[in-house]
Amino acid sequence: MIHIVFNTADIDALAKSFELDETLRGEIIQIKDDFAVGPIKDIFSSEGIEARKQWWREVLADGDYHGIVDDGSVEDDNKTVASLTEKLQSDPEEKIWIWAAQNKHDVSGYYWLMSQLKDFQGRIFILYLNNLPFINEKGNIFYPTWLHTIPAKEFVKAKKLARPITLSEFEIDPDEWNKLCNEDKGVRTLEGGKKLAQHDYNFYDTELKKFITSNWLSAHKIISTFLNKATNTTGDAYLLWRLKLILSSCDYDVQGEMKKMKDFEVKLKAAQPETEASPA
């Protein structure tokens, strides 16, 4: 059994459940990219793949994750899928369980991944935690939006949700993904179920600006506050990129080098006092 997750924190959370239920034990593989942002047009072609990599190079340039597109520190998701395909072809008994919680990151990753696995229908399972109640560490009912927030014992219960992705889903869901790809937008949000909506790249800008004040704040502080308080959020790398673009206007003061999040501070530009007109 191969488990697929979409967040680093999900790996440890799922692995802990293996100690409680040996039938769950299997290899855990993470899809690294965040397909909820960035270009996805022609995403399965060599041109589309390279266009997305180039976009990420520009987004991450000089920031906290500079260079990771090409330095080998992050596994190539396309190579991961090729490896999965090879394993499925070499072992007819192998199965894949795709774990997804109700958030745009997981759902976007699900669409991207399953669209490439149609040839293995019947062996690809989905565990989608869509509006399902779980019990947290304090014994209270909650509805997780992220897989890693579920206690290990709840993963054991969640395995009952595993079901094969149907032939109908293998027809409909890739079509839905292709439609999103052809819209050529930059931000995807989850409206409910598996329904994704798309927006322009500046979707988060208005909300992000609200956390820039008249006092000096580090970019790290502004982004952290946004992530803690905003209704719709995304990854910090994307937000840093958008913040740098916002600061290109003349409405803000910046001190330090606009590179990593802790390298510079930002505040609203102070109002300039009006000068009195000279007497005639």
List the keywords.
18% strand, 9 helices, five-stranded mixed β-sheet, alpha/beta, 280 residues, 12 strands, three-stranded antiparallel β-sheet, Arc Repressor Mutant, subunit A
Can you give a write-up of this model?
- Helix content is 36%, strand content 18%.
- It has helices at residues 8-18, 46-60, 77-90, 104-114, 152-158, 167-183, 205-209, 219-229, 236-246, and strands at 2-5, 27-30, 96-101, 124-129, 134-135, 141-142, 163-164, 187-192, 195-199, 217-218, 252-256, 264-268.
- It folds into 2 domains: 2-180; 205-268, Arc Repressor Mutant, subunit A, CATH 1.10.10.
- Helix 1 (8-18) links the parallel strand 1 and strand 2.
- The relative contact order is 0.13.
- The protein has a 5-stranded mixed sheet, with helices on both faces. A 3-stranded antiparallel sheet has the order 10-12-11. Strands 5-6 form a two-stranded antiparallel ribbon.
- Residues 274-280 have low confidence and may be disordered.
- Helix 1 packs across helix 5 (152-158) and helix 8 (219-229) crosses helix 9.
- It has 280 residues and is α/β, with parallel strands linked by helices.
- The N and C termini lie far apart (87 Å).
- The chain is built from 9 helices and 12 strands.
